[in-house]
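Thread: Newbie trying to understand structure tokens

Hi all, I'm a second-year student working on a class project, and my supervisor (Dr. K.) asked me to get a predicted structure for one chain before our next meeting. I've only ever worked with sequences, so writing a 3D structure as a token string is new to me. If someone could post the tokens and maybe explain what I'm looking at, I'd be very grateful. Here's the chain:
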Amino acid sequence: MKIRVFLAVLACKVSRFLIRLLGRGGTDLPGRVALKICPGLLGELAKGVKTILVTGTNGKTTTARMIEQSLTDSGISFFANRSGANLLSGVTAEYAMHSTLFGRCRNDYALIETDEAAFKHIARCVRTSVVVVTNVFRDQLDRYGDVTNTLENILLGLMECPDATVCLNADDSLCTSLRDRIENPVVFYGVQTPMYEKRVEELSDAPYCVRCRHAYTYDYVTYGHLGAYACPSCGFRRPDPDIFVEKILSMDEASATVVFSDGTRSDNCVIGLPGGYNIYNACAAMAAGKALGLDPAVCAASLGHFTCGFGRMEKFPIGKTELRMILIKNPAGCSQVLNYLSQRTEEYVFAICLSDHTQDGKDFSWIWDVDFECLYGEDKPLRDVWFSGGRAEDMAMRFKYAGFPEERLHIEKDYETLVRTLTDREVPVYIMPTYTAMLDLRSTISKKFGFKAFWE
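---
Reply by user tm_fold:
Sure, no problem. This is what the structure looks like when written as tokens:
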């Protein structure tokens, strides 16, 4: 086994080096090569390493980045899969890159975001101290199926983590239902107040009680199916969270200011990204800090200066303006971007890059479940919309049905031309790509406009 581990780690390091010499990421292939040599490599490399796993449908990368900053500010030795490679092969590669050739990890902790379906495979191999579950939304129906399948995948992963403290979103009825099926200690987190005066219209992914199938009632909804839910039939309801946002002081186009509380103390906190969904991500990060025993004041302060994940509200100053890239993957995330854009009062340029590769999900019919109509109106600051990606024409058709005049809808398949056209104006630019479109678009921006590659 020792020889296999040595050869596998060596192959991983060499292949990563060669791939990056070619200007590619090398986030997945080196791990696949290593696992061919030593199928049990991850279990060997993870020995003695305390692992924090972050999973769920939306917000994994941003939540992990927030936790990462908390760990850094707390002086904890760790590594993280910052490149976003969250399947078994990619995670194995990260462990190998942070280990000696003989398989000894150089860090005390590993912070790993993991795909929901891969969660059970990764959890089986590592020593998990904390698991953070962000939420469960409808996503990639061709791959995951119904939300109940995603929930079952997460449950199977949790069953592989008997010694972990589990952080669950109290405002998500699907997440909360996991509590009854695991024996782990649980830290609940949530938002104790409505987020928006006016929300984008959304379809709920979980309108009925997970226990008795009766329709929920809500004291308030934050977004999607999240909020203060209760079943009037069987009594299943939102639990009291252990860490929560008790007040939202402000939300603007760059950040949010909130008050966190654990019931005994409160901390004012500036979150360095805008949007209600990032308030939830911050809340999840605070819950992870509580589970790890970190100083809550340090965790709260770290939320103001963490580095966002690539493509997740990432900013690029180009030409006469600044471009902000906002990854989408499903109707819940897309609706939250629209909530953010609908708060804008100054003119802006908007582009959507829609693709339907395997990593995006082949089924893109969800675009008809999103209220793009909320962006249209003579009193709205959005005037022109641009479309790109393999399914640009389908998205343009969706906007035509939303009421936008055809002369305000433009298709440009070449990403470099698209970016140059959009940034040749002195107004903010927002681009909303799906995953593979984001990778291609970001690669173009890196090469043509002098920005770091996504893995750097």
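A couple of things are worth pointing out once you decode it. The longest helix spans residues 2-21. The chain has a mean pLDDT of 92. Feel free to ask follow-ups in this thread.
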